[in-house]
Amino acid sequence: MERVKMAEAESLETAAEHERILREIESTDTACIGPTLRSVYDGEEHGRFMEKLETRIRNHDREIEKMCNFHYQGFVDSITELLKVRGEAQKLKNQVTDTNRKLQHEGKELVIAMEELKQCRLQQRNISATVDKLMLCLPVLEMYSKLRDQMKTKRHYPALKTLEHLEHTYLPQVSHYRFCKVMVDNIPKLREEIKDVSMSDLKDFLESIRKHSDKIGETAMKQAQQQRNLDNIILQQPRIGSKRKSKKEAYTIFDTEIESTSPKSEQDSGILDVEDEEDDEEVPGAQDLVDFSPVYRCLHIYSVLGARETFENYYRKQRRKQARLVLQPPSNMHETLDGYRKYFNQIVGFFVVEDHILHTTQGLVNRAYIDELWEMALSKTVAALRTHSSYCSDPNLVLDLKNLIVLFADTLQVYGFPVNQLFDMLLEIRDQYSETLLKKWSGIFRNILDSDNYSPIPVTSEEMYKKVIGQFPFQDTELEKQPFPKKFPFSEFVPKVYNQIKEFIYACLKFSEDLHLSSTEVDDMIRKSTNLLLTRTLSNSLQNVIKRKNIGLTELVQIIINTTHLEKSCKYLEEFITNITNVLPETVHTTKLYGTTTFKDARHAAEEEIYTNLNQKIDQFLQLADYDWMTGDLGSKASDYLVDLIAFLRSTFAVFTHLPGKVAQTACMSACKHLATSLMQLLLEAEVRQLTLGALQQFNLDVRECEQFARSGPVPGFQEDTLQLAFIDLRQLLDLFIQWDWSTYLADYGQPTCKYLRVNPVTALTLLEKMKDTSRKNNMFAQFRKNERDKQKLIDTVAKQLRGLISSHHS
């Protein structure tokens, strides 16, 4: 009973506590409710509290529902009344808006009428006053108007006479008027205005030549291009008699011959795109495109007024400003050839005009001024070309730019301007052109190497055979005697790479044209660029292919064969360059091609990659090795993994038949040494703590299989037992343990004729310790038998003697 009462008391107490918590939750701020909830979870009546909380929530929901039902009808009525009020408010707003609009409309007409009335009365007063004053001053004003008319019609000398007549004859008659005094005071200004009007003529002239500079330059460059083409044609054709052809005949020759005999058409060279003209029509000059009379008149006026020096200074100052504008290249000039052409046309047009002014005026410009402008123009032009040409990544655009610069320089040279800096800069652009070519050919080589199948080229007919021979210089009498179908030893990338090298040389030769370089300089340029192509671009492409992760041994073998043939073709590339430059390779300072070194390096890299791949394959097979080092059974055949490994090596070395003998021999010896080293490491690794004689017998069978592979001569060229020497360390170690010939080993150790000369005592001791531990474990309960005790003592004795050998060797 007491327990029941105590339970009821606790229940009442818990209920009261829950009620208090609920009240506290209802009255407490949400941010501070954490401690209250913690007290619920700290207690043991969590479920009962949740029931009470659910009950309290239901009660509140019912109360909320009752309150909403009670006030719902009033809410609806309020909304209805609000909607009615909104409609009335909208009507009121519309009425106010209409009233305001009508008021504004009516008031606007009144305001306009008042303003018109005001303006009308003001005009009436002004007209009356003006008529009275004009009647008094009409002769003076007429004379002044005449002066203005003369100034407007650019009759500057009559204007100056009228101004003098007005000043001395008409103005004194009406001097009592104030405006006459002002007019007298303005006479110096009128003279200045005449000067300004003359100056405006000069400004119009400057604006005209600024607009026409592009066309003037285009015309001048066209003339230079035609003259250069004519000179080339005359040099190419033998002279017939001594009679000189007329200009019309020369242009006829140009028009008829340029299409058939010129190595480059105008469109190909990208020099000029000017309109076609009649054969007998002369190309207009600067004086035909620009009217120079304003500058002559203005110069004369300023000379009469005693301000010639002012005029000269102003003209030179404005032309300097125009020169700076002309020399400022557009930001996107490097994107197209037209941008460069327009830039050059403006510069040429500017200096053609200045040259014309120099030769048709007396001192307006002089040679020193022209030279100063040209020095500035030359430095800015060279700087702009250096900057913008560096953005060009298309070698064709760089080549067209070079041709355009040559024409630009030739045009200005005709007018007597020194252009050596432009040709020096072209030598700098030549280096950039070489870089863009190298980038382009890098992509070409990459595509060729990526698309190659790395297998010998098959030919099934004489036509196909001659086609390959025509693409690549290859001679093999044995291959020629073989019947069709037959195969070339190299793959398709050999003739493709060879021909692309020749195309690169042609591209380099194009840039050297018209640069006034000697044959030796052209030859040196081509050879240096070709060396960069070979040693950097082609070499990197070959190295990238060789270092690819998924490349196989067959591909590496074919790369070695290909690079061997490409190396032999280097002498033909030398002859090719000699033929196009006419510079003999025996000439002093002639650069030699480095193709031999490039292909040798690539071949050596491929050989190293073959050795590495073979070793990796061997390691993959060795990972399959699963020796039972504790077995007591004597095996009868080699391990399966090793049989598979030997079969793989045989098939691999069979592919090496086309390789140079030393490469195949080195690969075979490297593989055998790596296999022997890996097997030794497998036997001595720390994870193998114990092993039995049976395990050694199985290991011995595997080593015998390796020795049998070495004796079979997988690669020809080895002497009798050379390849077997790779396994001599393993063989002597295994013979020592299997035959248990410790007495011979210990007695002969250190002598040159020792039977176990290749057995290191440290290695022997390591392996003996593994067998010693095995012997102890297996004979734990048989250690009292005499044979086992003797064997254990022998192992201990041998181990002790080996330690002695090791310590004496170290000391």
UniProtKB/TrEMBL annotation:
Record-stated family: Belongs to the SEC15 family.
Coiled-coil segments: 82-109
Keyword annotations from UniProtKB, A to Z: Coiled coil, Exocytosis, Transport
Described function: Component of the exocyst complex involved in the docking of exocytic vesicles with fusion sites on the plasma membrane.
Protein's UniProt keywords contain Transport: yes
Protein name per Swiss-Prot or TrEMBL: Exocyst complex component
Exocyst complex component EXOC6/Sec15 N-terminal domain location: 52-221
Disordered: annotated segments: 257-280
Pfam families tied to this protein: EXOC6_Sec15_N (PF20651), Sec15_C (PF04091)
Species this chain originates from: Rangifer tarandus platyrhynchus
Domain of life from the UniProt record: Eukaryota
Domain Exocyst complex subunit EXOC6/Sec15 C-terminal: 421-770
